[in-house]
Input
Amino acid sequence: MFFQNMSMAAQQVAILYLIVAVGFIADRIGIFKQSTAKMSNDLLFYVITPTVIVQSFLNMEFNRETISSFLVAFLCMFTTLTVGIFIVIPFFKKDGENSSIYKYAVSYGNMGYMALPLCQSLLGSEGVFYCSAGVVAFNILSFVHGIWLMKKGTDSDEGFKIKTIVLNPGVLSVAVGLPLFVLGVDLPEIINGAVTHIANLNTPLAMIFLGTYIANADLKQMFTQKQNYMVSFLKLLLLPAIMFCIFKLVGISGTLITACMISASVPSATNTVMFSAKYGKDTGVASTVVAFCSLLSVLTIPVMIALSHV
Output
């Protein structure tokens, strides 16, 4: 059963990375460049991914079990991010300004562009429902701790504001979807159809965009930087292993533990690059570490997903 689950997960990851390859090739031959992906990123971030989260609420039946599971999922995801923040503290102390990039890359996984599509592919609406709790936790911590981390060692005096915690796509989409879920609202078929079509864009667009980022990474630097290997070990192996033990100890099981393990084992968040650019960090270093970690995750994610069924 372990190897059967591993094979199924590997197949789904391979499908996603075939779409990444389309983005890679499209960038290299000039029909869809990284600059276009960056310009289109707001569409994915502010419209499509939130629609996926809202749809997950619409497809779930409200009862005591589902609402308690969502709260448990949020706690699990928040704990995962917190553990990631703490385990990276002893590392990368000699890397100067790049230290913040590596620490951010370990602490924050690719929730929107990898965890949600994987949960969507493997677990359906129930998995997306649980994963959306992780998106909320991610947005809260990344806009608080993440900004603080990236601002370290810079002259930026722009502090975070409370509205950045509340008024972001992850939290707002849950604020829309949760009342619909609790009240058992059935949207008219014409609206529901539009929501479904928009949500279906999430996986292909996210993977194509990631392909353009990888196409523009320094492949030689990607494989020669020892820090990339350390980030990947901490993010893809150590953190998921720690969380697997914690989840088992507290009795998490079924679809919930699979969704939690997917969220714990996804590679470094692509907004490592965006945050690096915003706060004057080396975007070349950020791009290569995200790309390298993403490539290695093809091997590690199926193993971690299969573990969740043990």
Summary: The chain has a mean pLDDT of 85. The first helix runs from residue 2 to 29. The CA atoms of residues 56 and 124 lie 9 Å apart. DSSP finds 14 helices and no strands in the chain.
